[in-house]
Amino acid sequence: MPGANLLSMPFDDLLAANRRFADSFALTGFDGIAQAGVALVTCMDSRIDPLGMIGLKAGDAKMLRNPGGRVDDLTLDALVISVHMLNVNRILVIPHTRCAVASNSEETLRTKLDESTGQDTSWLTLPVTDGQAAALAGDVQRVKAHPLIPDTVEVGGFLYDVDTGLLSQEV
């Protein structure tokens, strides 16, 4: 089909890389549980290698990524599923240094989005904080307080330094 080829052109490099990846694919038949019992909540920032930064590999952990690495309602739902159905018994909430969401005010982010989109983005939910440390403490407490996440699940709050690769436990 001629049109199908045109549609894939912007993705050809990625599809070629996928074919190379599939040549040595080793996760066939994997059941999808978190082999190391870990769930990570972190930012969508491309400087973060969630598995690599804590010495894990594919299949070891459930990873939930969003702007700022925040614990919102959907993240909580995913954590409940992870704990009760996917072998998770440790949850790490990991925002990072030099985060655009944490280092800009809502007004600044909205102005940038409005300019970029040419539209009013006041209806868009932005996960901005009044302080990254307070937001992290609140997010960890939100996970711990959830009625469907048992006290036997360990929950910690960490900060990832994008310039050194180091994690520090904050909560």
Your description of this structure?
The protein has helices at 2-8, 12-23, 73-85, 100-103, 106-117, 132-145, and strands spanning 38-43, 61-66, 90-94, 154-160, 167-169. It is globular. Strands 2-1-3-4-5 form a 5-stranded mixed β-sheet. It has one domain (28-169): Carbonic anhydrase (Beta-carbonic Anhydrase, Chain A, 3-Layer(aba) Sandwich). A hairpin with a 6-residue loop joins β4 (154-160) and β5. The model has no long low-confidence stretch (mean pLDDT 93). It starts with a helix and ends with a strand. The chain contains 6 helices and 5 strands. With 171 residues, the chain is an alpha/beta fold.
Summarize the structure.
With 171 residues, this protein is an alpha/beta fold. It has helices at 2-8, 12-23, 73-85, 100-103, 106-117, 132-145, and strands spanning 38-43, 61-66, 90-94, 154-160, 167-169.
Radius of gyration: 19 Å
Q: What is the rounded distance between the termini?
A: 55 Å
Number of E strands: 5
Shape: globular
| Mean model confidence by pLDDT | 93
- Largest sheet strand order: 2-1-3-4-5
The CATH architecture comes to 3-Layer(aba) Sandwich
Which segments are poorly predicted (pLDDT under 50) over 5 or more consecutive residues? none
Most strands sheet: 5 strands, mixed
**How many helices does DSSP assign?**
6
Question: How does the helix and strand content classify structurally?
Answer: alpha/beta
Share of helix among residues?
25-40%
Share in β-strands = 15-25%
The CATH topology assignment is Beta-carbonic Anhydrase, Chain A
Q: List the domain count as a whole number.
A: 1
**CATH superfamily membership, which one?**
Carbonic anhydrase
CATH class: Alpha Beta
Order of helices and strands: HHEEHEHHHEE
